Amino acid sequence: MEIIEQMGEQGLSDLVAAFYRRMKDDTLVGKMYPADDWEGSEERLRDFLIYRFGGSQKYIEERGHPRLRMRHMPFRVDSAASNRWMEIMRAAMDDVKVPSPSRETLDDFFEQTANFMRNTPDAR
Ligand code: HEM
Fold first, then answer.
1. The total number of structural domains that make up the chain
2. Which of 7, 25, 45, 94 is deepest in the core (most CB within 10 A)?
3. 123 in a domain, yes or no?
Protein backbone atom coordinates (compact mmCIF):
# COMPACT_ATOMS: atom_id res chain seq x y z
CA MET A 1 0.00 0.00 0.00
CA GLU A 2 1.24 3.48 -0.85
CA ILE A 3 2.23 5.71 2.05
CA ILE A 4 -0.01 8.51 0.83
CA GLU A 5 -3.04 6.18 0.65
CA GLN A 6 -2.48 4.81 4.13
CA MET A 7 -1.43 8.00 5.94
CA GLY A 8 -2.76 10.82 3.78
CA GLU A 9 -1.05 14.19 3.53
CA GLN A 10 -2.42 14.89 7.01
CA GLY A 11 -0.63 11.85 8.46
CA LEU A 12 2.70 12.98 7.00
CA SER A 13 2.07 16.53 8.28
CA ASP A 14 1.38 15.20 11.76
CA LEU A 15 4.61 13.17 11.65
CA VAL A 16 6.70 16.19 10.64
CA ALA A 17 5.06 18.32 13.35
CA ALA A 18 5.97 15.65 15.96
CA PHE A 19 9.53 15.50 14.59
CA TYR A 20 10.11 19.25 14.98
CA ARG A 21 8.49 19.35 18.43
CA ARG A 22 11.34 17.07 19.49
CA MET A 23 14.04 18.55 17.25
CA LYS A 24 13.60 22.04 18.71
CA ASP A 25 14.92 20.78 22.06
CA ASP A 26 17.83 18.80 20.64
CA THR A 27 21.27 20.14 21.48
CA LEU A 28 23.28 18.32 18.76
CA VAL A 29 21.22 18.48 15.56
CA GLY A 30 18.49 20.90 16.69
CA LYS A 31 20.90 23.78 16.93
CA MET A 32 21.87 23.43 13.23
CA TYR A 33 18.43 24.64 12.13
CA PRO A 34 17.79 28.37 11.73
CA ALA A 35 16.28 29.28 15.11
CA ASP A 36 13.99 31.91 13.65
CA ASP A 37 12.45 29.70 10.94
CA TRP A 38 11.14 26.50 12.51
CA GLU A 39 7.90 26.95 10.57
CA GLY A 40 9.84 27.16 7.30
CA SER A 41 11.86 24.04 8.13
CA GLU A 42 8.68 22.19 9.01
CA GLU A 43 7.05 23.24 5.75
CA ARG A 44 10.05 22.13 3.64
CA LEU A 45 10.31 18.63 5.18
CA ARG A 46 6.53 18.18 5.09
CA ASP A 47 6.24 19.24 1.44
CA PHE A 48 9.25 17.11 0.50
CA LEU A 49 7.81 13.92 2.07
CA ILE A 50 4.38 14.54 0.56
CA TYR A 51 5.98 14.96 -2.87
CA ARG A 52 8.35 11.99 -2.43
CA PHE A 53 5.56 9.63 -1.42
CA GLY A 54 3.07 10.48 -4.12
CA GLY A 55 1.09 13.53 -2.96
CA SER A 56 1.14 17.18 -3.98
CA GLN A 57 4.09 18.47 -6.06
CA LYS A 58 4.27 21.74 -4.08
CA TYR A 59 7.83 21.00 -2.90
CA ILE A 60 9.18 20.75 -6.47
CA GLU A 61 7.28 23.82 -7.59
CA GLU A 62 8.72 25.90 -4.78
CA ARG A 63 12.18 24.39 -4.23
CA GLY A 64 13.05 22.63 -7.50
CA HIS A 65 14.97 19.34 -7.58
CA PRO A 66 15.64 18.33 -3.95
CA ARG A 67 19.46 17.83 -4.28
CA LEU A 68 19.33 16.88 -0.62
CA ARG A 69 22.95 15.86 -0.22
CA MET A 70 24.12 19.19 -1.61
CA ARG A 71 21.65 21.10 0.56
CA HIS A 72 23.08 19.43 3.66
CA MET A 73 26.69 20.34 2.87
CA PRO A 74 26.62 23.49 5.05
CA PHE A 75 25.93 21.28 8.08
CA ARG A 76 28.30 18.98 9.90
CA VAL A 77 26.69 15.58 9.38
CA ASP A 78 28.86 12.90 11.00
CA SER A 79 27.59 9.57 12.30
CA ALA A 80 26.51 11.08 15.63
CA ALA A 81 24.38 13.72 13.87
CA SER A 82 22.93 11.23 11.43
CA ASN A 83 22.10 8.75 14.21
CA ARG A 84 20.52 11.49 16.32
CA TRP A 85 18.35 12.68 13.40
CA MET A 86 17.16 9.09 12.94
CA GLU A 87 16.47 8.61 16.68
CA ILE A 88 14.32 11.73 16.73
CA MET A 89 12.43 10.63 13.62
CA ARG A 90 11.79 7.18 15.12
CA ALA A 91 10.48 8.77 18.32
CA ALA A 92 8.21 11.00 16.21
CA MET A 93 6.94 7.93 14.30
CA ASP A 94 6.12 6.38 17.70
CA ASP A 95 4.42 9.60 18.86
CA VAL A 96 1.97 9.61 15.95
CA LYS A 97 1.78 5.79 15.70
CA VAL A 98 2.63 5.44 12.01
CA PRO A 99 0.87 2.23 10.93
CA SER A 100 2.51 -0.76 9.26
CA PRO A 101 3.50 -1.09 6.41
CA SER A 102 4.11 2.68 6.08
CA ARG A 103 6.24 2.50 9.21
CA GLU A 104 8.70 0.02 7.68
CA THR A 105 8.85 1.84 4.33
CA LEU A 106 9.52 5.18 6.02
CA ASP A 107 12.03 3.69 8.44
CA ASP A 108 14.08 2.25 5.55
CA PHE A 109 13.85 5.45 3.55
CA PHE A 110 14.87 7.69 6.47
CA GLU A 111 17.73 5.42 7.45
CA GLN A 112 19.17 5.29 3.92
CA THR A 113 18.76 9.01 3.39
CA ALA A 114 20.22 9.91 6.78
CA ASN A 115 23.30 7.77 6.01
CA PHE A 116 23.61 9.33 2.56
CA MET A 117 23.65 12.85 4.10
CA ARG A 118 26.88 12.10 6.01
CA ASN A 119 29.55 14.51 4.85
CA THR A 120 32.01 14.68 7.76
CA PRO A 121 34.28 11.98 9.19
CA ASP A 122 33.76 11.25 12.88
CA ALA A 123 35.94 13.16 15.32
CA ARG A 124 38.33 10.86 17.12
C1 HEM B 1 21.34 13.08 8.74
C2 HEM B 1 21.13 14.09 9.55
C3 HEM B 1 20.43 15.36 9.09
C4 HEM B 1 20.71 16.61 9.52
C5 HEM B 1 21.77 17.00 10.55
C6 HEM B 1 19.83 17.52 8.82
C7 HEM B 1 19.79 18.88 8.99
C8 HEM B 1 19.12 19.77 8.20
C9 HEM B 1 19.19 21.20 8.33
C10 HEM B 1 19.97 21.94 9.40
C11 HEM B 1 18.44 21.72 7.35
C12 HEM B 1 18.21 23.22 7.05
C13 HEM B 1 16.93 23.75 7.58
C14 HEM B 1 15.85 23.73 6.53
O15 HEM B 1 15.99 24.42 5.53
O16 HEM B 1 14.89 23.03 6.71
C17 HEM B 1 17.87 20.62 6.59
C18 HEM B 1 17.06 20.75 5.50
C19 HEM B 1 16.36 19.72 4.94
N20 HEM B 1 16.47 18.39 5.25
FE21 HEM B 1 17.77 17.60 6.59
N22 HEM B 1 19.04 16.80 7.97
C23 HEM B 1 19.36 15.47 8.10
C24 HEM B 1 18.74 14.42 7.45
C25 HEM B 1 17.69 14.55 6.57
C26 HEM B 1 16.93 13.44 6.02
C27 HEM B 1 17.18 11.97 6.34
C28 HEM B 1 15.99 13.99 5.19
C29 HEM B 1 14.92 13.33 4.36
C30 HEM B 1 14.32 12.26 4.68
C31 HEM B 1 16.14 15.42 5.23
C32 HEM B 1 15.37 16.32 4.53
C33 HEM B 1 15.57 17.68 4.50
C34 HEM B 1 14.85 18.59 3.64
C35 HEM B 1 13.74 18.22 2.64
C36 HEM B 1 15.35 19.87 3.89
C37 HEM B 1 14.95 21.17 3.20
C38 HEM B 1 15.69 21.27 1.85
C39 HEM B 1 15.37 22.54 1.10
O40 HEM B 1 16.06 23.54 1.31
O41 HEM B 1 14.41 22.53 0.32
N42 HEM B 1 17.18 15.73 6.08
N43 HEM B 1 18.30 19.44 7.13
1. 1
2. 7
3. no
- How many whole angstroms separate alpha carbon 85 and alpha carbon 101? 21
CATH code where residue 70 lies = 1.10.490.10
Radius of gyration of the chain (CA): 14
Ligand 1 lined by 32 (C-beta under 6 Å): yes
Q: Residue 67: left if φ>0, alpha if ψ -120 to 50, beta else—which one?
A: left
Residue having the nearest C-alpha atom to atom 36 of ligand 1: 45
**15 ligand 1 Cβ < 6 A:** no
- Taking only the tens place, the pLDDT of each residue in 71-99 is 999 999 999 999 999 999 999 999 999 99
Q: Give the position, in ligand 1's atom list, of the atom nearest the Cα of 117.
A: 1
State the residue range of the domain holding 87.
Answer: 6-116
Q: Is the pTM of this model over 0.70?
A: yes
Residue 40: per-residue pLDDT:
98
Q: For the purposes of burial, counting CB atoms within 10 Å of the CB of 65, is it exposed (0-12), middle (13-18) or buried (19 or more)?
A: exposed
